[in-house]
UniProtKB/TrEMBL annotation:
Source species: Kibdelosporangium aridum
Gene Ontology CC terms, in alphabetical order: cytosol
Protein name: Aldo/keto reductase
Matches recorded under SUPFAM superfamilies: NAD(P)-linked oxidoreductase
Domain of life: Bacteria
Domain NADP-dependent oxidoreductase: 16-316
Pfam family, one: Aldo_ket_red
Any one Gene Ontology molecular-function term assigned to this protein's record: oxidoreductase activity
InterPro entries referenced in this protein's UniProt entry, alphabetically: AKR (IPR020471), NAD(P)_OxRdtase_dom_sf (IPR036812), NADP_OxRdtase_dom (IPR023210)
Length: 321
């Protein structure tokens, strides 16, 4: 699988990355055996970039990814995690995590972008994963704390990079306006942008992607299926778009795109995975995977060579910019 370098660093990622959200029990419970199967199938398929976060299942995703990656040579993979939430132990008392992950509420989250908070978060993550280093470190979901993240969090990440603790730094967020500010005002290497450069949402192309290209900042595109709408060949009623039920006009547009895909012998998910990589700033995509079957399906879809005429026809029909 092809790899790309992040910014001006020596850190490389495979163009298809493993998104660790589902391993935290996102949307549905997940047992350790199934999670391990997903990781093994992704590895067998050539994926060598794994992304996780303390937020994902209050540590479950980090633990599961760490258990798998400890079995592999350390220089054979790239690992990213995130800072901005510290996990504080508490008695679960039978309660489940209120943040949408199907795990017992053994911890609660405290938002913290201070220097001490960032360093403690890194130490906690390394302990949970049982690994000696993190390759890429992101400020996570800083939209409501952006001033703190830019003022305190970014310098803390830059310090860790200068010390050699991490190889590349950046942020993982939805908001392209804030990410553009970060790219322009800070010396970051990579940003993980979620859901704003997909077949159905091109808003990242206005100012965010040009700023990344100008500054030499790499982009990892996440949520390329927009919460599931683009993950099936023919989305129907009940499909989700950006975590909500898809509006009729969005559903109609997705199916028009599917018409063009089918005319060229490819599927909507295959084209959705290939789309972000058409932009020169995009180094890779991160796709959430929760089972071996899902991982194998994603690897197979990603390997499909999408004909150039697909992009031409989608542009001609006004379906992509």
């Amino acid at each position: 699988m092809k790899t790309n370098r992040l910014g001006r660093t020596t850190v490389e990622v495979t163009q298809l990355g493993f998104g660790g959200g589902p391993l935290g029990g996102l949307f549905a419970p997940l047992d350790d055996e199934t999670a391990a199967g997903a990781l093994a199938a992704a590895w067998d398929g050539g994926i060598r970039y794994y992304d996780t976060s303390p937020h994902y299942g209050i540590g479950h995703s980090e633990r599961r990814i760490g258990e798998f990656l400890r079995q592999q040579p350390r220089d054979s993979f790239t690992l990213s995690t995130k800072v901005g939430r510290l996990l504080v132990p508490q008695a679960a008392d039978g309660k489940m995590d209120p943040a949408g992950f199907h795990v017992p509420a053994t911890h609660y989250r405290v938002r913290d972008f201070t220097r001490d908070g960032v360093r403690r978060s890194v130490e906690d993550s390394l302990e949970r994963m049982g690994l000696d280093r993190i390759d890429v470190l992101y400020l996570h979901d800083a939209e409501e704390f952006f001033d703190d993240a830019l003022r305190d969090g970014y310098p803390a990440l830059a310090e860790l990079r200068s010390e050699g603790v991490v190889g590349a730094i950046g942020a993982g967020m939805y908001d392209t306006v804030m990410l553009t500010t970060l790219v322009k005002e800070a010396d970051v290497d990579v940003v993980m942008q979620s859901g704003r450069y997909t077949l159905l949402d091109h808003s990242a192309i206005d100012t965010f992607l040009p700023a990344c290209e100008e500054r030499g900042v790499s982009v990892i595109a996440a949520s390329v299926f927009n919460s599931g709408l683009l993950a099936v060949p023919r989305p129907g009623e009940g499909a989700y778009f950006d975590y909500e039920a898809a509006a009729p006009d969005v559903l109609e547009r997705a199916n028009k795109i599917a018409d063009v895909c089918e005319a060229h012998g490819v599927t909507l998910p295959q084209v959705a995975m290939a789309f972000p990589l058409q932009h020169p700033a995009v180094a890779g995509i991160a796709v959430g995977m929760r089972s071996a079957e899902e991982a194998r399906r994603n690897v197979k879809s990603f390997a499909v060579d999408v004909p150039a005429q697909v992009w031409t026809d989608l542009r001609a029909a006004g379906l992509i910019r």
